[in-house]
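If you are new to this repository, start here. Below is one unmodified record pulled from the training split, so you can see the exact layout before writing a loader.
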Amino acid sequence: MQRSLFSRFSLHFTLVLVFALLAALAQWTAFRVSRETLKATVDAQEIEKIQTVGRVLLELLEAHAERARLTARLIALGDSLGKYLASSRGGDAAMKLRQSLDDARVASEHGHIEVTDNREIVLYRSDDGEPVGDRSSAWGVFEALQGESILATELAAGILTVRAIEPIALQGQLLGTICVGFRVDSALLEKLGRELAAELFLVARTGQVLAASTTRSRSLDPVLIQEALTQKIPVFRQSRESHESVGYLPLTIIDTAYVVVAVLDSSTAYRRLDEGQERAAVYTLVILLGCSLLAILLLRWTLHSLFALRNKAEGLALELTGSGIAVESGNEVQVVVNVLETLTSRLVARNTELLEAKQLAEAASRAKSRFLSNMSHEIRTPLNGILGMAEILERTPLNAEQERYVRAIGSAGRSLHELLGDILDLAKIEAGKVVIEQIDFDLQALLGQLADIFRELASARSNTLITDFRIPARLALNGDPTRLRQILSNLISNAIKFSEGGTITFCVSPLDPRPDDDRLWLRCSVSDTGIGIAPEAIAGLFKPFVQADQSTTRRFGGSGLGLVICRHFAELMGGAISVDSTLGQGSTFTIDLPFARAVAPLPEPATAARSVEKINARILVAEDNPVNQVVIKAILGQLGATVTIAENGALAVEVLQQSAFDLVLMDCQMPVLDGYGATAAIRALPPPWSRVPIVALTANALPEDRQRCLDAGMNDYLSKPVRIEPLLSCLLHWLPAGASASASASPQPTTLPVQASPASASLLDRSALVDNPSFNRPGMGKLVERVIALYLDDTPKLIATIRLRLPEPAWPEVTRAAHSLKSSSAAIGLASVSARAARIETLARQQDAVEVAAALPGLEEEFAQAVPELRAELERLTGKPLLT
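And here is the target side for that same chain:
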């Protein structure tokens, strides 16, 4: 694009001119400020000089007056003058007196001496031509004849005279006075003016000039004279034209106020001021020229960068938006501004698109989190039935084939539970909700348990697990043993999975202390002789859902989450994980973790395993789902507890107050009053009801769900599916000491009947309830018949609640009904009905009325297909037909 030379020159010239004007304005301002400052300084110096002149003048006049007083006093103290006044005062005595007084006048340099007798008759005057023998008119003579020393002034014929009058006495008799004075006249001021380098004028209150140090006439301002006299302060004026500084100084001489006008020649000071201003002007011009030259160079460099910026912006616009920017203008700055504005508007539009995409991604992430939370609840509910029933079944007498089936069910359920845990761990990590605990634990015991667990698993794949723990026995640390166990379990499990007929080496050793870190660092390594990892696959090894090779996913299985969870946990604990691997030879995973020393010493190890397996306690179970009621009642029954069921939270509070219970198992989602509200109501009761232990029993498994239960006032938390050992451990922890009893004898083995396979497909899973030996044991009564009858009676009511409440819509009632139907259907063995109810529960939580209405007919149809089979089974169990 061609740019005219004139346009560039105009732009340069305009910018340089503006820069020069700004620099000139700045320099002119600085010059004016400095000039005013310098002038004020010079004026202040001249005023100080005038004030000094005033002080010196006053001091000189006071010195003259004091010298006159001393002269008069010395003469009065002499005997000659007194004797003369006491004698006849004639002849030679008079001549001698005159000669001595003339000599004293010359010696004292005072121009006026006057002697009077005690009748105030003048006997001697030093002024030539003045008569004697007349009465003295000077003020103070009469006072001096009274024995006082007098200082006085006299203004006569325009001449100011300062007099010192002393009494003359001889042998205590006052014989007369002597007056010594000096005139403040032009001659005196001329002398003082020469000494002070100033022109002096003595002005009376009337404005009359009494004396002047110069014969040159000068116009004095009467207004300033009166101002100085009235306010009794000096008044100053400076004249730049005449280079003079004038001060009107109020002056009190003995007892009368006068004004001394002092005029100083300030030509030297103002000449220096003018020279300084000229130099400042020259400096200003030099600086202005330098700034202009600098502006030219700077603008050339700036505009060069501006041209480059425009080209870059045009290229960036073409790269990012696919189209260039065409702007025609002679002003290069305006061209760049237009290009940048256009680019900015395009980038804003692009950022808006990216923001919308980000918001969609965040919404998807939130939806994923909600989905994982819902799926956690949905999967754990049927998983509770699977693992719970499998564990109950495992404790019943079984033949070899049945034990193999039960172990397979338990193994599959636990694998599903571990996978669900990995997915939830990853979701919590991504949401930043993982909390690292800080508790004391025994490292040696933890490592020993891991070695015992995985030694059998390694042996099953013909591997050998070797341990090398180079740590002290019973090493007490403070940290998160759960996360440490999870990390090491993942690493050892992977080593076993990817090795066959090899060796797994599990090593733990302390690291050297680190500077400024008093924590104990441990290095844990897991080595294997398995398939190894290719170098190019190591970079992505710690990413979610990634394995070393896609073929391993098919051959070895796994979700690809274990290592990324290990990495996140290690980083949250302040450590790091690394891998060293050779393809075909094996891998070594190393993790370095810091731990604090234990806060308290470890308890002594137990000498024998606890043999308590039965409890003798009254337990209140708050559970609305009939099937869950049966399951928990069966588990607690096996443990020896007496169980009371309450169908909602309000009923639980009421039942608790009517009877004594040792513990309450509280479901969180119930009609009428949920578990949180019921707990709050119980805690509000008076003792002893308010102190009963409450344990949450729910399918919600996230940490915030646990914390919510504890915040509501519950003592502990158990997540479904509940296993007998954790449940028993929790009960023994919270129940009174007398609630436990020793293990009881096991029941006699029985052989379960083997059911023939039905000729057609069946919706009912008979192993869940009908053929479950845990519900057909002696003492259980007709438990299966009651559960089926209750289900057939309750399910139509729940479906009707969903249909009737949907149009309003009353989402809490719809959600609660679907949740209850889901749990009861899963427990009774109708998996398809449970799945459809779970779907409706999820949609109801999302308040999607259209999808709930669309899914409801399928639920009703599925239940209708299952009803005949349930009725037939109930007729078989009761031995009589049912009324329709």
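Two things worth knowing about this chain: The first strand starts at residue 112 and ends at 117. The CA atoms of residues 234 and 249 lie 5 Å apart.
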